[in-house]
TrEMBL record:
PANTHER family, A to Z: FERRICHROME IRON RECEPTOR-RELATED, TONB-DEPENDENT OUTER MEMBRANE RECEPTOR
Membrane topology: Multi-pass membrane protein
Domain (TonB-dependent receptor-like beta-barrel) ranges: 252-674
Signal peptide bounds: 1-28
Residue ranges occupied by any TonB-dependent receptor plug domain in the UniProt entry: 52-162
Family to which the UniProt record says this protein belongs: Belongs to the TonB-dependent receptor family.
Record's protein name: TonB-dependent receptor
Provenance organism: Rhodocista pekingensis
Cell compartment(s), UniProt: Cell outer membrane
UniProt-listed InterPro entries: Beta-barrel_TonB, Beta-barrel_TonB_sf, Plug_dom, TonB-dep_rcpt-like
Length: 744
C-alpha cells in the first residue's frame, strides 16, 4: 500500500511538471461547472464498445465531421496520411490503389494482387484487395486507427495495424445530414445520408450517397488532350431489422462507379544529385505519347449481413459479407513523350467472401471474454500489360493470372479485472493461409515487340512456371496489462505476435520470368503507454513507446527492366514513440496535436536490390555486381517523424449563431521511397495545411464555409519511377465553398 501511495505521489508531481508544458490558456484556467469538457470517445478496438481511455491498445479516433473536412477538396482515403500519429499513405495508381504504413511498416508493391500488413475494415468487413481498400468513404461516423499487430480479433492477420471505418448506422429516430462543396478545377463533392423508421420499433433504414467530380485540368502538350479529372460515385443502403428485443439484423448493400485519371508521372522532374523538383515539373502540363490519357475505370458492389442475438449473458454475432469489383488502370509510366513505357493493370473479376462468427460475454463482472472463427475466400483474375511493351498487329498483348486465397482462423480473448485498478487481457489466434497463382495467359512468340536503342525486338514466348502454391499456419497472440494510477491517469503494456501469410507476385511473368514469392513474415511487438484525462477533462494526453522486430520481412524490389519481385530479408527492426493530445485552451478554442518518431532498419547483410538503370541516379549504398546492399537502410515509405496539428476557434454571436475557424497541418520527416538510399529518391520536411472559415446558424441545422486544402500550394514528391527520374506529386492548392445541412 505504501508503495502504491508513493507511486501516486510521484505521478502527481510528474503531472504537475508536465502541466508547465501545457499551453498557458489551459493551465491558467480554473475549471467551472459550465465550462466544456472533452467528449468521451467510444471505440471498438476490442470488438466491443469501450472508452478510448480504458483500452490497452494504442488507438486514435477521428470523428466523421473532421474526416469530411479532410475530404473537402475532393480527396479520398489518402487524406488520412500524416493526420494520425504513425499513419502514412501514398499511391502510384490513382484513386484505386492506396498503400498504407503504420509505425513505418507497409508494402510499396504496385501489383494488384499485393498483400499489405495494414488491414482496412469498413463496417466490420475486412477489405483485402488493394482496390477494395480504396472503397469510397461517405456518411462516416468515425475512423479508428489501431497501431501495432491486431491479428487476434480482426478478420485477417495484420502485422502493422488496422484502419477501421464505421458508417452512420440506421436508427428509428429520423436523422439526416449532407455536405456539398464546390472548388478549384470544377471540383464538386456531395456526401449525404438520411434515415429513420419504416416500421416503428421493427425496421429502420438509412440511405447514403456520395459524388465526387473534378474536371480535366492538365494539358497533355503531346496530343492536345486534357486529363486529371475524375467522377467517383457511390451509394449505400442499410436496413436494421429488430424482430425481437434480443435480436438485431443489419443488412448493408453498397456500390461504386469510378471513371478517373490515374496517377500523373512527371518524367525527369528530378535532377541527378537532388531530391527537389526541377523546372520540368509544371502542375498544369504533361507530355504523354502513350498511356491512353492515364485512364482508369472501376465498378463494383458488395453486401453484408450482421446478426446479433443476445442470449442473456452472452451475445452471438454473425457477419457474412461479399465484395466484387472489376476495372482497369493505365498510365504513361515514364511521364514523357520521348519513351515507350506504359503499363496497364486490370481486375477482370474479383470475388471475396468472408464469414465471421463470434460469441462474447455481456456481463458487468470482472471477467469478459469472446471466442470465434473466421473464414476468408478470394478469387481474382488479373490481366496486365508489362512495361516497355505494346500490342502489334491486333494481337493480344496481356498476361493473365488467376489468384486464389483461402484462409481460416479460430480466435479467443479474455480480460480479467484483478483489482479495481488492474486489468489483464490476453488473446490467441490460430490461422491457416493458402495462396495459389495460375498463369492463364502468357506471352507468345511474335506477339510483342520492345523498343531497345531504336530497334524492335521480338519477345519470346513464356516458358516459365505456370502454377505456384504456398501454404502456412501460425499462432498469433497478445497480452496486455492496464493499470489505473489515479482517476485521471492510466498506464498499459502490451506484447503482441502477428503474422502475414506467404505472398505470390506474378509481374515477372511478363518478362519470361518465373513468379516470385515471399514466405510468411512474423512480428513481435512491445509497447508501453500512458492514457490521461487531465484538468477536469479539458486535456486528453495519450502516448506510447514501442519497438518491434519483423522476422523474414517481406520486401518488394523494383528491377531495372521496370518490373517488381518479392523477397524476404532476414529481419526488420524498429523503435519509436507517439503522442496524441487534445485540449480546450478556452471554452471556444480546441486544439489537437500528434507526434510520431520511428526509426526503422533492414537487417540482412546478404540481401541486395537492383538500382536505377543507366546511372541516372546517385546510389549511396555499396554495390555488388551492380546491385545495392540494403543492410541498415530504413523501410520504404517510413517517415522518420510525423507531426500533426488541428485547431478550431469559435466566435459565438449574440443571436446564438457561431462563426468558426478550423485549420489542420501536418509535416513528415525524411522518407525513403525505395529500398536503396540515393541522393534523389526521398523527401524531407514536407508539409501541408488546410483551412476552413464558416458560419453556423443558432440551432446548428446548417453551416456554410470557405475552405482551402494545401493552402500554401506545397509541391511535395510522394513517389518515384526511378529509371526516368519521374516524380509523383501531391495535388496543388484547392479552394472552395461548402454547405452542410442537418435535420433538426
Amino acid at each position: 500500500m505504501r508503495t502504491q501511495v508513493q507511486l501516486k505521489r510521484a505521478l502527481n508531481a510528474g503531472l504537475s511538471a508536465l502541466a508547465l508544458l501545457v499551453p498557458a490558456g489551459v493551465a491558467a484556467q480554473t475549471a467551472q461547472p459550465s465550462e466544456p469538457a472533452l467528449e468521451e470517445i467510444i471505440v471498438t478496438a476490442q470488438r466491443r464498445s469501450e472508452n478510448l481511455q480504458e483500452v490497452p491498445v494504442s488507438v486514435a479516433a477521428i470523428s466523421g465531421d473532421t474526416f469530411r473536412d479532410y475530404l473537402a477538396g475532393g480527396g479520398d482515403v489518402l487524406a488520412l496520411s500524416a493526420r494520425v500519429p504513425g499513419l502514412y499513405a501514398e499511391t502510384s495508381t490513382g484513386r484505386i490503389f492506396p498503400r498504407f504504413y503504420i509505425r513505418g511498416l507497409g508494402n510499396n508493391d504496385f501489383y494488384l494482387g499485393a498483400s499489405q500488413p495494414v488491414s482496412i475494415i469498413i463496417d466490420d468487413v475486412v477489405m483485402e484487395n488493394v482496390v477494395l481498400k480504396s472503397s469510397p468513404l461517405f456518411d462516416t461516423q468515425q475512423v479508428e486507427v489501431l497501431r501495432g499487430p491486431q491479428g487476434t480479433l480482426f478478420g485477417r492477420n495484420t502485422t502493422a495495424g488496422i484502419i477501421k471505418f464505421d458508417s452512420i448506422a440506421p436508427s428509428h429516430e429520423t436523422q439526416g445530414r449532407g455536405t456539398v462543396t464546390y472548388g478549384t478545377f470544377g471540383t464538386v463533392t456531395a456526401d449525404a445520408g438520411v434515415g429513420g423508421s419504416l416500421i416503428d420499433g421493427v425496421l429502420a433504414i438509412r440511405a447514403s450517397a456520395m459524388v465526387q467530380h473534378r474536371g480535366d485540368w492538365v494539358d497533355n502538350t503531346a496530343d492536345g488532350t486534357k486529363l486529371g479529372g475524375y467522377d467517383d460515385k457511390a451509394a449505400r443502403v442499410q436496413f436494421l431489422l429488430t424482430p425481437g428485443e434480443d435480436t438485431d439484423v443489419l443488412l448493408n448493400v453498397h456500390g461504386r462507379d469510378l471513371d478517373a485519371t490515374s496517377t500523373l508521372f512527371r518524367g525527369y522532374a528530378l535532377t541527378k544529385g537532388s531530391h527537389k523538383l526541377n523546372g520540368n515539373y509544371d502542375k498544369d502540363k504533361v507530355a504523354y505519347n502513350d498511356g491512353d490519357a492515364n485512364d482508369q475505370s472501376y465498378e463494383g458492389w458488395g453486401s453484408s449481413l450482421k446478426v446479433d442475438h443476445d442470449f442473456g449473458n452472452v451475445v452471438l454475432t454473425s457477419i457474412t459479407a461479399y465484395e466484387t469489383t472489376n476495372g482497369y488502370s493505365r498510365g504513361d509510366t515514364d511521364g514523357t513523350a520521348g519513351n515507350f513505357a506504359e503499363s496497364q493493370g486490370n481486375i477482370d473479376d474479383l470475388d471475396q467472401w468472408t464469414q465471421e462468427l463470434r460469441l462474447a460475454s455481456d456481463t458487468t463482472g470482472p471477467l469478459n471474454w469472446q471466442v470465434g472463427g473466421f473464414y476468408f475466400d478470394s478469387d481474382e483474375q488479373l490481366t496486365f500489360r508489362p512495361y516497355n511493351f505494346f500490342e502489334t498487329g491486333g494481337a493480344s498483348g496481356f498476361v493473365t493470372l488467376g489468384n486464389e486465397n483461402r484462409s481460416w482462423a479460430v480466435f479467443g480473448q479474455a480480460g480479467y479485472r484483478i483489482t479495481d485498478d488492474l486489468k489483464l487481457t490476453g488473446g490467441l489466434r490460430w490461422t491457416e493461409d493458402k495462396k495459389e497463382m495460375n498463369v492463364l495467359r502468357a506471352l507468345q512468340a511474335g506477339t510483342f515487340t520492345s523498343v531497345e536503342d531504336g530497334r524492335r525486338i521480338t519477345q519470346a514466348s513464356y516458358t516459365g512456371i505456370r502454377h505456384v502454391e504456398l501454404k502456412d499456419d501460425e499462432l498469433s497472440w497478445d497480452a496486455s496489462a492496464f493499470y489505473d494510477l489515479t482517476d485521471e491517469v492510466s498506464v498499459f503494456g502490451r506484447i503482441a505476435r502477428g503474422f502475414r501469410g506467404p505472398t505470390i507476385q506474378g509481374r515477372t511473368v511478363s518478362f519470361n520470368g518465373a513468379p516470385t514469392t515471399a514466405t510468411s513474415e512474423t512480428i513481435l511487438s512491445y509497447e508501453a503507454g500512458l492514457k490521461s484525462s487531465l484538468l477536469d477533462d479539458r486535456l486528453r494526453l495519450n502516448g506510447a513507446v514501442y519497438t518491434y522486430t519483423v522476422n523474414d520481412i517481406q520486401l518488394t524490389a523494383f528491377d531495372g527492366n521496370g518490373t517488381a519481385r518479392l523477397l524476404n530479408a532476414d529481419k526488420g527492426v524498429a523503435y519509436g514513440l507517439e503522442v496524441d493530445a487534445e485540449a480546450y485552451l478556452t471554452p471556444d478554442f480546441i486544439v489537437t496535436a500528434g507526434l510520431t518518431y520511428t526509426d526503422t532498419e533492414i537487417k540482412d547483410d546478404q540481401v541486395t536490390t537492383s538500382v536505377c538503370s543507366g546511372g541516372v541516379c546517385t546510389v549511396k549504398d555499396p554495390l555488388v555486381n551492380g546491385r545495392a546492399k540494403i543492410d541498415g537502410n530504413p523501410f520504404p515509405n517510413a517517415p522518420e517523424y510525423i507531426l500533426s496539428l488541428t485547431a478550431r476557434y469559435n466566435m459565438p454571436l449574440a443571436d446564438g449563431s457561431n462563426l468558426f475557424l478550423f485549420t489542420d497541418w501536418n509535416m513528415t520527416g525524411r522518407t525513403n521511397f525505395v529500398l536503396y538510399e540515393s541522393e534523389e529518391f526521398y523527401s524531407k520536411g514536407d508539409f501541408e495545411g488546410g483551412l476552413k472559415i464558416g458560419y453556423e446558424n443558432p440551432d446548428r441545422t446548417y453551416e456554410v464555409a470557405l475552405f482551402g486544402r494545401n493552402i500554401t500550394n506545397e509541391k511535395n514528391v510522394k513517389g518515384v519511377i526511378e529509371n526516368y527520374l519521374a516524380a509523383v506529386v501531391n495535388d496543388p492548392m484547392t479552394v472552395g465553398i461548402s454547405f452542410t445541412a442537418r435535420l433538426p
